Amino acid sequence: MPQLPFLLVDAFTTRPLSGNPCAVVLDADALTPATRQQLAREFNQSETAFVDSAAAGSTEFTVRFFTPAEEIPLAGHPTIATVAALLHAGRVALPADGTPLVLTLQLLHGPIRVEVLPAAAGQPPLIWMTQRRPVFGAVHAPEVVLPLFGLTPDDLLPNAPIQTVSTGTPQLMVLLRDHTALRRAHVADAAGLGRYRAASDFFSPHLFCLGGATVAGHTFARHFGTPPDISEDPVTGSATGGMAAYLWHHGYLRSPEFLAEQGHDMGRAGTVQVRVSGPREAIDAVQIGGTGVVVLEGSLRGDL
Question: Cross-referenced NCBIfam families, in alphabetical order (predicted)?
Answer without folding.
Answer: PhzF_family
